[in-house]
Amino acid sequence: MAIKVHEFFSTYYRKTILQVVTLQIVGALLASGLAWVAWHNLGFGPVPTFVFGVLVGVLANILVIIFILRLTSEPLRIMSQAVAHVSNDPVVTPPPDINSKRYEQSGLKAMVQTIFELAVADPNVNTTTQPNDFFKILADGLPCGIIAMDANGTIMYTNAAAPVASTADDGQQLSLIFEQNDDLAKWIADCQTNKVRDDHLWLRVANKPPSENDRRIFDVSGHYQKNAQAGIEVLLVAFDRTAAYAPDQDDMDFIALAAHELRGPITVIRGYLEVLKDELASKLDTDQQMLLDRLQVSAERLSGYINNILNVSRYDRSRFIVHPQEENLLDVFKSLVPDLALRASTQRRKLTFQIPHDLPTIAADRTSLSEVIINLIDNAIKYSHEDGEVVIGARRKEDFVEVTVSDNGIGMPEAVVGNLFNKFYRSHRSREAVGGTGLGLYICKAIVESHGGSIWVRSKEGQGTTFGFTLPVYATVAQKLTNGDNNDITQRSEGWIKNHAMYRR
Question: How many domains does the chain have?
Protein backbone atom coordinates (compact mmCIF):
# COMPACT_ATOMS: atom_id res chain seq x y z
CA MET A 1 0.00 0.00 0.00
CA ALA A 2 1.32 3.45 -0.93
CA ILE A 3 2.60 5.66 1.89
CA LYS A 4 0.67 8.92 2.39
CA VAL A 5 2.62 12.18 2.26
CA HIS A 6 2.11 12.95 5.96
CA GLU A 7 3.33 9.42 6.85
CA PHE A 8 6.63 9.61 4.96
CA PHE A 9 8.97 10.88 7.68
CA SER A 10 7.60 8.72 10.51
CA THR A 11 7.80 5.62 8.28
CA TYR A 12 11.29 6.51 7.08
CA TYR A 13 12.48 7.22 10.64
CA ARG A 14 11.11 3.96 12.04
CA LYS A 15 12.68 1.90 9.25
CA THR A 16 16.05 3.60 9.71
CA ILE A 17 16.05 3.02 13.47
CA LEU A 18 15.01 -0.63 12.94
CA GLN A 19 17.82 -1.19 10.45
CA VAL A 20 20.43 0.41 12.71
CA VAL A 21 19.32 -1.53 15.79
CA THR A 22 19.17 -4.81 13.84
CA LEU A 23 22.68 -4.36 12.46
CA GLN A 24 24.03 -3.45 15.90
CA ILE A 25 22.41 -6.51 17.52
CA VAL A 26 23.68 -8.84 14.80
CA GLY A 27 27.13 -7.34 15.18
CA ALA A 28 26.97 -7.71 18.95
CA LEU A 29 25.94 -11.37 18.68
CA LEU A 30 28.73 -12.14 16.22
CA ALA A 31 31.31 -10.35 18.34
CA SER A 32 30.14 -12.09 21.52
CA GLY A 33 30.10 -15.49 19.79
CA LEU A 34 33.62 -15.09 18.45
CA ALA A 35 34.85 -13.93 21.85
CA TRP A 36 33.23 -16.92 23.56
CA VAL A 37 34.72 -19.41 21.07
CA ALA A 38 38.17 -17.85 21.32
CA TRP A 39 38.08 -17.82 25.09
CA HIS A 40 37.10 -21.51 25.34
CA ASN A 41 39.68 -22.57 22.78
CA LEU A 42 42.29 -21.05 25.04
CA GLY A 43 40.87 -23.08 27.92
CA PHE A 44 39.86 -20.21 30.22
CA GLY A 45 36.43 -21.64 31.23
CA PRO A 46 33.12 -19.63 31.44
CA VAL A 47 32.46 -16.45 29.47
CA PRO A 48 34.37 -13.65 31.19
CA THR A 49 33.12 -10.25 32.25
CA PHE A 50 34.52 -8.47 29.23
CA VAL A 51 31.98 -10.23 26.93
CA PHE A 52 29.23 -8.64 29.02
CA GLY A 53 31.07 -5.37 28.64
CA VAL A 54 31.00 -5.83 24.85
CA LEU A 55 27.21 -6.14 24.95
CA VAL A 56 26.85 -3.06 27.15
CA GLY A 57 29.07 -1.11 24.81
CA VAL A 58 26.98 -2.14 21.82
CA LEU A 59 23.78 -1.02 23.59
CA ALA A 60 25.32 2.34 24.43
CA ASN A 61 26.41 2.67 20.81
CA ILE A 62 22.82 2.03 19.65
CA LEU A 63 21.51 4.83 21.89
CA VAL A 64 24.17 7.23 20.62
CA ILE A 65 23.36 6.38 17.01
CA ILE A 66 19.61 6.93 17.60
CA PHE A 67 20.39 10.35 19.13
CA ILE A 68 22.63 11.27 16.18
CA LEU A 69 19.95 10.14 13.72
CA ARG A 70 17.39 12.31 15.45
CA LEU A 71 19.60 15.38 15.12
CA THR A 72 20.73 14.76 11.55
CA SER A 73 17.24 13.89 10.27
CA GLU A 74 15.60 17.04 11.66
CA PRO A 75 15.82 18.98 8.35
CA LEU A 76 14.20 16.03 6.57
CA ARG A 77 11.41 15.99 9.19
CA ILE A 78 10.71 19.72 8.81
CA MET A 79 10.76 19.66 4.99
CA SER A 80 8.53 16.55 4.98
CA GLN A 81 6.06 18.40 7.23
CA ALA A 82 6.14 21.40 4.89
CA VAL A 83 5.48 19.21 1.84
CA ALA A 84 2.63 17.42 3.65
CA HIS A 85 1.14 20.80 4.63
CA VAL A 86 0.91 22.05 1.03
CA SER A 87 -0.07 18.69 -0.47
CA ASN A 88 -3.54 17.38 -1.26
CA ASP A 89 -3.22 14.74 1.44
CA PRO A 90 -6.60 14.17 3.14
CA VAL A 91 -4.98 14.47 6.59
CA VAL A 92 -4.41 18.15 7.43
CA THR A 93 -0.82 18.71 8.55
CA PRO A 94 0.10 21.96 10.36
CA PRO A 95 2.98 24.01 8.95
CA PRO A 96 6.39 23.49 10.59
CA ASP A 97 7.68 26.11 13.02
CA ILE A 98 10.75 27.59 11.33
CA ASN A 99 11.09 30.81 13.31
CA SER A 100 14.14 29.65 15.27
CA LYS A 101 17.30 31.62 14.48
CA ARG A 102 19.32 28.44 13.95
CA TYR A 103 16.98 27.44 11.10
CA GLU A 104 17.62 30.80 9.44
CA GLN A 105 21.38 30.49 9.87
CA SER A 106 21.44 26.94 8.50
CA GLY A 107 19.33 27.88 5.46
CA LEU A 108 16.50 25.51 6.41
CA LYS A 109 14.03 28.39 6.76
CA ALA A 110 14.74 29.51 3.20
CA MET A 111 14.26 25.93 1.97
CA VAL A 112 10.83 25.64 3.63
CA GLN A 113 9.73 29.06 2.34
CA THR A 114 10.76 27.97 -1.15
CA ILE A 115 8.53 24.89 -0.80
CA PHE A 116 5.61 27.15 0.14
CA GLU A 117 6.29 29.50 -2.78
CA LEU A 118 6.54 26.66 -5.28
CA ALA A 119 3.29 25.19 -3.96
CA VAL A 120 1.30 28.31 -4.78
CA ALA A 121 3.20 29.50 -7.83
CA ASP A 122 1.57 29.41 -11.25
CA PRO A 123 4.28 28.70 -13.85
CA ASN A 124 2.10 30.16 -16.57
CA VAL A 125 1.87 33.61 -14.96
CA ASN A 126 4.31 36.36 -15.85
CA THR A 127 4.83 38.47 -12.71
CA THR A 128 5.81 41.53 -14.73
CA THR A 129 2.54 41.63 -16.64
CA GLN A 130 0.22 44.54 -15.74
CA PRO A 131 -3.56 44.49 -16.32
CA ASN A 132 -4.07 45.40 -19.95
CA ASP A 133 -6.93 47.42 -21.39
CA PHE A 134 -8.94 44.33 -22.26
CA PHE A 135 -8.72 42.98 -18.71
CA LYS A 136 -9.65 46.37 -17.21
CA ILE A 137 -12.69 46.72 -19.49
CA LEU A 138 -13.74 43.17 -18.64
CA ALA A 139 -13.28 43.64 -14.86
CA ASP A 140 -15.06 47.01 -14.79
CA GLY A 141 -18.02 45.50 -16.60
CA LEU A 142 -18.60 42.79 -13.98
CA PRO A 143 -21.63 43.22 -11.67
CA CYS A 144 -19.49 42.53 -8.61
CA GLY A 145 -16.64 44.29 -6.87
CA ILE A 146 -13.09 42.90 -7.11
CA ILE A 147 -10.39 43.94 -4.64
CA ALA A 148 -6.81 42.62 -4.77
CA MET A 149 -4.65 43.11 -1.66
CA ASP A 150 -1.14 42.24 -0.54
CA ALA A 151 -0.17 40.45 2.68
CA ASN A 152 -0.47 43.67 4.72
CA GLY A 153 -3.99 44.44 3.51
CA THR A 154 -2.83 47.20 1.16
CA ILE A 155 -5.17 47.51 -1.83
CA MET A 156 -3.34 46.86 -5.09
CA TYR A 157 -6.23 46.80 -7.56
CA THR A 158 -9.99 47.43 -7.64
CA ASN A 159 -12.57 47.35 -10.39
CA ALA A 160 -15.34 49.91 -10.90
CA ALA A 161 -17.90 48.12 -8.71
CA ALA A 162 -15.60 47.60 -5.71
CA PRO A 163 -16.86 49.07 -2.39
CA VAL A 164 -13.86 51.33 -1.73
CA ALA A 165 -13.30 54.98 -0.87
CA SER A 166 -10.43 57.35 -1.60
CA THR A 167 -8.07 58.43 1.16
CA ALA A 168 -6.35 61.75 1.74
CA ASP A 169 -3.07 60.41 0.33
CA ASP A 170 -4.74 59.37 -2.96
CA GLY A 171 -4.88 55.77 -1.85
CA GLN A 172 -7.92 53.55 -1.32
CA GLN A 173 -9.58 51.99 1.69
CA LEU A 174 -12.14 49.24 1.85
CA SER A 175 -15.62 50.57 2.71
CA LEU A 176 -17.03 47.52 4.44
CA ILE A 177 -18.10 47.03 8.06
CA PHE A 178 -17.24 43.54 9.29
CA GLU A 179 -18.43 41.87 12.48
CA GLN A 180 -16.08 42.11 15.47
CA ASN A 181 -15.55 38.35 15.77
CA ASP A 182 -15.35 37.64 12.04
CA ASP A 183 -13.54 40.55 10.45
CA LEU A 184 -11.17 40.69 7.51
CA ALA A 185 -8.04 41.59 9.47
CA LYS A 186 -8.42 38.60 11.81
CA TRP A 187 -8.95 36.24 8.89
CA ILE A 188 -5.84 37.51 7.07
CA ALA A 189 -3.75 37.23 10.25
CA ASP A 190 -4.96 33.66 10.84
CA CYS A 191 -4.19 32.69 7.24
CA GLN A 192 -0.68 34.16 7.40
CA THR A 193 0.07 32.18 10.57
CA ASN A 194 -1.60 28.84 9.87
CA LYS A 195 -2.48 28.37 6.21
CA VAL A 196 -1.21 28.36 2.67
CA ARG A 197 -4.62 28.67 0.99
CA ASP A 198 -8.04 29.46 2.40
CA ASP A 199 -11.50 30.68 1.39
CA HIS A 200 -14.02 32.56 3.51
CA LEU A 201 -17.52 33.95 3.05
CA TRP A 202 -19.09 36.92 4.85
CA LEU A 203 -22.84 37.53 4.54
CA ARG A 204 -24.71 40.83 4.95
CA VAL A 205 -21.67 43.11 5.10
CA ALA A 206 -22.72 46.77 4.89
CA ASN A 207 -20.67 49.65 3.54
CA LYS A 208 -22.24 52.20 5.92
CA PRO A 209 -24.07 52.24 9.26
CA PRO A 210 -27.88 51.87 8.97
CA SER A 211 -28.52 55.54 9.68
CA GLU A 212 -26.58 56.80 6.64
CA ASN A 213 -27.86 57.32 3.11
CA ASP A 214 -26.90 55.18 0.12
CA ARG A 215 -26.21 52.18 2.34
CA ARG A 216 -25.36 49.01 0.42
CA ILE A 217 -25.23 45.42 1.70
CA PHE A 218 -22.82 42.86 0.23
CA ASP A 219 -22.00 39.18 0.39
CA VAL A 220 -18.19 39.04 0.33
CA SER A 221 -16.11 36.06 -0.78
CA GLY A 222 -12.43 36.04 0.22
CA HIS A 223 -9.59 33.93 -1.18
CA TYR A 224 -6.11 33.75 0.39
CA GLN A 225 -2.98 32.37 -1.25
CA LYS A 226 0.37 32.60 0.53
CA ASN A 227 3.27 34.10 -1.43
CA ALA A 228 1.11 34.41 -4.53
CA GLN A 229 2.36 35.76 -7.82
CA ALA A 230 2.61 39.56 -8.11
CA GLY A 231 2.16 39.80 -4.33
CA ILE A 232 -1.64 39.42 -4.49
CA GLU A 233 -2.24 37.27 -1.42
CA VAL A 234 -5.85 38.36 -0.73
CA LEU A 235 -8.60 38.53 -3.33
CA LEU A 236 -12.09 39.74 -2.38
CA VAL A 237 -15.22 39.55 -4.49
CA ALA A 238 -18.17 41.63 -3.23
CA PHE A 239 -21.67 40.86 -4.51
CA ASP A 240 -24.18 43.68 -4.04
CA ARG A 241 -27.23 42.08 -2.37
CA THR A 242 -28.96 45.25 -1.22
CA ALA A 243 -32.14 44.55 -3.18
CA ALA A 244 -32.44 41.05 -1.69
CA TYR A 245 -31.76 42.10 1.90
CA ALA A 246 -33.71 45.39 1.90
CA PRO A 247 -37.13 43.75 2.57
CA ASP A 248 -35.73 42.09 5.70
CA GLN A 249 -34.51 45.45 6.95
CA ASP A 250 -37.85 47.08 6.15
CA ASP A 251 -39.63 44.31 8.04
CA MET A 252 -37.35 44.84 11.03
CA ASP A 253 -38.03 48.58 10.96
CA PHE A 254 -41.79 47.95 10.97
CA ILE A 255 -41.54 45.36 13.75
CA ALA A 256 -39.42 47.72 15.86
CA LEU A 257 -41.93 50.53 15.36
CA ALA A 258 -44.81 48.25 16.33
CA ALA A 259 -42.90 46.98 19.37
CA HIS A 260 -42.20 50.53 20.48
CA GLU A 261 -45.90 51.39 20.28
CA LEU A 262 -46.86 48.22 22.17
CA ARG A 263 -44.44 48.90 24.99
CA GLY A 264 -46.68 51.52 26.61
CA PRO A 265 -49.88 49.44 26.76
CA ILE A 266 -48.11 46.29 27.99
CA THR A 267 -46.43 48.29 30.76
CA VAL A 268 -49.88 49.51 31.86
CA ILE A 269 -51.29 45.96 31.76
CA ARG A 270 -48.42 44.66 33.89
CA GLY A 271 -48.94 47.46 36.39
CA TYR A 272 -52.67 46.76 36.77
CA LEU A 273 -52.01 43.03 37.14
CA GLU A 274 -49.59 43.67 39.98
CA VAL A 275 -52.12 45.96 41.68
CA LEU A 276 -54.91 43.39 41.29
CA LYS A 277 -52.69 40.64 42.65
CA ASP A 278 -51.84 42.67 45.75
CA GLU A 279 -55.38 43.95 46.36
CA LEU A 280 -57.20 40.67 45.75
CA ALA A 281 -54.66 38.26 47.23
CA SER A 282 -56.91 37.41 50.21
CA LYS A 283 -60.12 37.20 48.17
CA LEU A 284 -59.11 34.83 45.38
CA ASP A 285 -59.47 31.07 45.46
CA THR A 286 -56.71 28.78 44.14
CA ASP A 287 -58.00 28.65 40.55
CA GLN A 288 -58.44 32.41 40.37
CA GLN A 289 -54.95 32.97 41.79
CA MET A 290 -53.51 30.56 39.19
CA LEU A 291 -55.34 32.41 36.42
CA LEU A 292 -53.93 35.75 37.60
CA ASP A 293 -50.43 34.26 37.81
CA ARG A 294 -50.69 33.01 34.24
CA LEU A 295 -51.86 36.42 33.06
CA GLN A 296 -48.88 38.01 34.78
CA VAL A 297 -46.43 35.49 33.26
CA SER A 298 -47.92 36.05 29.79
CA ALA A 299 -47.61 39.82 30.22
CA GLU A 300 -43.97 39.46 31.33
CA ARG A 301 -43.23 37.21 28.39
CA LEU A 302 -44.83 39.66 25.94
CA SER A 303 -42.79 42.43 27.52
CA GLY A 304 -39.67 40.28 27.00
CA TYR A 305 -40.50 39.83 23.31
CA ILE A 306 -40.86 43.58 22.92
CA ASN A 307 -37.53 44.23 24.67
CA ASN A 308 -35.82 41.67 22.42
CA ILE A 309 -37.18 43.32 19.29
CA LEU A 310 -36.13 46.80 20.38
CA ASN A 311 -32.67 45.61 21.42
CA VAL A 312 -32.18 43.84 18.09
CA SER A 313 -33.12 47.05 16.31
CA ARG A 314 -30.57 49.00 18.37
CA TYR A 315 -27.90 46.34 17.89
CA ASP A 316 -28.34 46.25 14.12
CA ARG A 317 -27.94 50.03 14.05
CA SER A 318 -24.85 49.97 16.27
CA ARG A 319 -26.77 51.88 18.96
CA PHE A 320 -26.79 49.05 21.46
CA ILE A 321 -24.31 49.84 24.25
CA VAL A 322 -23.86 48.16 27.60
CA HIS A 323 -22.45 49.83 30.70
CA PRO A 324 -20.56 47.20 32.72
CA GLN A 325 -20.09 47.71 36.43
CA GLU A 326 -18.88 45.47 39.24
CA GLU A 327 -21.71 43.03 39.99
CA ASN A 328 -22.19 40.02 42.22
CA LEU A 329 -23.72 37.23 40.13
CA LEU A 330 -25.56 35.75 43.10
CA ASP A 331 -27.22 39.11 43.82
CA VAL A 332 -28.35 39.36 40.18
CA PHE A 333 -30.00 35.94 40.40
CA LYS A 334 -31.65 36.77 43.73
CA SER A 335 -33.34 39.79 42.15
CA LEU A 336 -34.74 37.58 39.36
CA VAL A 337 -35.84 34.55 41.40
CA PRO A 338 -39.43 35.70 42.17
CA ASP A 339 -40.26 36.32 38.51
CA LEU A 340 -38.46 33.17 37.30
CA ALA A 341 -40.07 31.00 39.97
CA LEU A 342 -43.53 32.26 38.97
CA ARG A 343 -42.83 31.47 35.30
CA ALA A 344 -41.66 27.96 36.22
CA SER A 345 -44.51 27.16 38.58
CA THR A 346 -47.24 28.21 36.14
CA GLN A 347 -45.84 25.67 33.65
CA ARG A 348 -45.11 22.98 36.25
CA ARG A 349 -41.33 23.18 36.05
CA LYS A 350 -38.76 23.10 38.83
CA LEU A 351 -35.82 25.52 38.98
CA THR A 352 -32.61 24.48 40.74
CA PHE A 353 -29.93 27.11 41.35
CA GLN A 354 -26.32 26.02 41.89
CA ILE A 355 -24.57 29.37 42.23
CA PRO A 356 -21.49 29.29 44.52
CA HIS A 357 -21.18 32.07 47.10
CA ASP A 358 -17.45 32.52 46.54
CA LEU A 359 -17.56 33.48 42.84
CA PRO A 360 -15.54 36.60 41.96
CA THR A 361 -17.47 39.69 40.95
CA ILE A 362 -18.09 40.20 37.24
CA ALA A 363 -18.11 43.17 34.86
CA ALA A 364 -21.73 43.34 33.72
CA ASP A 365 -24.59 45.62 32.83
CA ARG A 366 -27.22 44.26 35.23
CA THR A 367 -30.21 45.12 33.04
CA SER A 368 -28.74 43.48 29.93
CA LEU A 369 -27.42 40.49 31.89
CA SER A 370 -30.89 39.97 33.38
CA GLU A 371 -32.32 39.80 29.86
CA VAL A 372 -29.86 37.05 28.93
CA ILE A 373 -30.64 35.02 32.04
CA ILE A 374 -34.42 35.41 31.63
CA ASN A 375 -34.27 34.51 27.92
CA LEU A 376 -32.24 31.35 28.50
CA ILE A 377 -34.26 30.14 31.49
CA ASP A 378 -37.54 30.96 29.72
CA ASN A 379 -36.39 28.85 26.74
CA ALA A 380 -35.45 25.97 29.07
CA ILE A 381 -38.90 26.15 30.70
CA LYS A 382 -40.70 26.19 27.35
CA TYR A 383 -38.77 23.31 25.80
CA SER A 384 -38.57 20.98 28.81
CA HIS A 385 -41.16 18.43 29.85
CA GLU A 386 -43.92 18.96 32.40
CA ASP A 387 -42.59 18.45 35.95
CA GLY A 388 -39.10 18.69 34.49
CA GLU A 389 -36.13 20.35 36.17
CA VAL A 390 -34.09 23.30 34.91
CA VAL A 391 -30.64 23.57 36.51
CA ILE A 392 -28.81 26.91 36.60
CA GLY A 393 -25.13 26.71 37.52
CA ALA A 394 -22.03 28.92 37.54
CA ARG A 395 -18.28 28.50 37.96
CA ARG A 396 -15.07 30.39 37.44
CA LYS A 397 -13.27 29.59 34.20
CA GLU A 398 -9.86 31.30 34.04
CA ASP A 399 -10.54 35.06 33.65
CA PHE A 400 -14.28 34.54 33.19
CA VAL A 401 -17.32 33.35 35.10
CA GLU A 402 -19.35 30.79 33.13
CA VAL A 403 -23.11 30.47 33.63
CA THR A 404 -24.99 27.39 32.38
CA VAL A 405 -28.71 26.67 31.99
CA SER A 406 -29.57 22.97 31.49
CA ASP A 407 -32.81 21.11 30.93
CA ASN A 408 -33.76 17.49 30.27
CA GLY A 409 -36.30 18.39 27.63
CA ILE A 410 -36.85 17.65 23.96
CA GLY A 411 -33.35 18.62 22.85
CA MET A 412 -32.38 19.53 19.28
CA PRO A 413 -30.81 17.79 16.29
CA GLU A 414 -27.35 18.89 15.25
CA ALA A 415 -28.67 20.60 12.11
CA VAL A 416 -30.73 22.98 14.25
CA VAL A 417 -28.03 23.84 16.80
CA GLY A 418 -25.80 25.56 14.24
CA ASN A 419 -28.49 28.13 13.37
CA LEU A 420 -29.85 28.94 16.82
CA PHE A 421 -28.19 32.33 17.20
CA ASN A 422 -29.31 33.62 13.79
CA LYS A 423 -31.90 36.37 13.72
CA PHE A 424 -35.51 35.14 13.30
CA TYR A 425 -34.39 31.50 13.15
CA ARG A 426 -36.86 28.97 14.55
CA SER A 427 -36.89 25.29 13.64
CA HIS A 428 -39.97 23.83 11.97
CA ARG A 429 -40.82 21.81 15.06
CA SER A 430 -40.50 24.73 17.50
CA ARG A 431 -42.63 26.99 15.30
CA GLU A 432 -45.46 24.47 15.52
CA ALA A 433 -45.13 23.61 19.22
CA VAL A 434 -43.94 26.77 21.02
CA GLY A 435 -44.52 30.47 20.45
CA GLY A 436 -41.70 32.98 20.06
CA THR A 437 -40.03 35.54 17.82
CA GLY A 438 -36.70 33.87 17.02
CA LEU A 439 -34.86 36.92 18.40
CA GLY A 440 -34.11 35.89 22.00
CA LEU A 441 -30.91 33.95 21.35
CA TYR A 442 -29.75 36.48 18.74
CA ILE A 443 -29.90 39.30 21.28
CA CYS A 444 -28.41 37.05 24.00
CA LYS A 445 -25.38 36.57 21.77
CA ALA A 446 -25.20 40.31 21.09
CA ILE A 447 -25.35 41.18 24.80
CA VAL A 448 -22.80 38.56 25.88
CA GLU A 449 -20.32 39.49 23.14
CA SER A 450 -20.80 43.18 23.92
CA HIS A 451 -19.56 42.33 27.43
CA GLY A 452 -16.49 40.62 25.98
CA GLY A 453 -17.80 37.11 26.65
CA SER A 454 -18.99 34.21 24.49
CA ILE A 455 -22.10 32.04 24.33
CA TRP A 456 -22.46 28.37 23.36
CA VAL A 457 -24.99 25.55 23.25
CA ARG A 458 -24.80 21.77 23.58
CA SER A 459 -27.84 19.62 22.83
CA LYS A 460 -28.89 16.08 22.06
CA GLU A 461 -32.29 15.26 20.62
CA GLY A 462 -34.56 13.68 23.20
CA GLN A 463 -32.09 14.23 26.07
CA GLY A 464 -32.07 17.96 26.71
CA THR A 465 -30.07 21.12 26.08
CA THR A 466 -27.44 23.17 27.89
CA PHE A 467 -26.76 26.82 27.12
CA GLY A 468 -23.71 28.54 28.56
CA PHE A 469 -22.17 32.00 28.45
CA THR A 470 -19.15 33.72 29.95
CA LEU A 471 -18.61 37.18 31.42
CA PRO A 472 -15.23 38.67 32.39
CA VAL A 473 -14.13 38.70 36.00
CA TYR A 474 -14.25 42.33 37.10
CA ALA A 475 -10.67 42.39 38.36
CA THR A 476 -9.37 41.48 34.87
CA VAL A 477 -10.97 44.51 33.19
CA ALA A 478 -11.30 46.94 36.11
CA GLN A 479 -8.44 49.15 34.96
CA LYS A 480 -9.87 49.56 31.47
CA LEU A 481 -13.32 50.36 32.83
CA THR A 482 -11.87 52.85 35.31
CA ASN A 483 -9.88 54.58 32.56
CA GLY A 484 -12.88 54.66 30.26
CA ASP A 485 -10.88 52.64 27.71
CA ASN A 486 -13.62 50.04 27.29
CA ASN A 487 -14.59 50.00 23.63
CA ASP A 488 -13.00 46.59 23.19
CA ILE A 489 -14.92 45.28 26.21
CA THR A 490 -18.34 46.89 26.14
CA GLN A 491 -19.33 47.81 22.60
CA ARG A 492 -19.87 46.09 19.34
CA SER A 493 -16.72 47.12 17.57
CA GLU A 494 -17.50 48.19 14.05
CA GLY A 495 -15.18 50.20 11.92
CA TRP A 496 -13.66 50.56 8.50
CA ILE A 497 -10.93 48.29 7.20
CA LYS A 498 -8.27 50.69 5.99
CA ASN A 499 -5.75 49.98 3.28
CA HIS A 500 -3.17 49.03 5.91
CA ALA A 501 -5.62 46.56 7.54
CA MET A 502 -6.30 48.75 10.59
CA TYR A 503 -9.56 50.18 11.91
CA ARG A 504 -10.86 53.68 12.28
CA ARG A 505 -14.22 54.76 13.62
Answer: 4
Boundaries of domain holding 113: 5-120
Helix (H) / strand (E) containing 481: helix 474-483
**Residue 169: which region, alpha, beta or left (left: phi > 0; alpha: psi -120 to 50)?**
alpha
In a domain, 483, yes or no: no
For 121-152, b where at least 16 C-beta lie within 10 A, e where not — what string?
A: eeeeeeeeeeeeeeeeeebeeeebbbbbbbbe
Say how far apart CA 90 and CA 84 lie, in whole Å: 10
- Predicted TM-score (pTM) of the model is 0.47
CA angle, corner 46, sides to 40 and 52, nearest 5?
105
pLDDT tens figures, 451-492? 889 999 998 888 899 999 999 999 998 887 777 655 444 443
For Cα atoms 375, 441, 267, give the angle at the middle one, nearest 5 degrees: 45
**Residue 105 and residue 234 in one domain:** no
Q: What is the per-residue pLDDT across 324-381, written as a single tens digit (0 to 9) for each?
A: 889 999 999 988 888 888 888 888 899 999 999 999 999 998 888 988 998 899 889 8
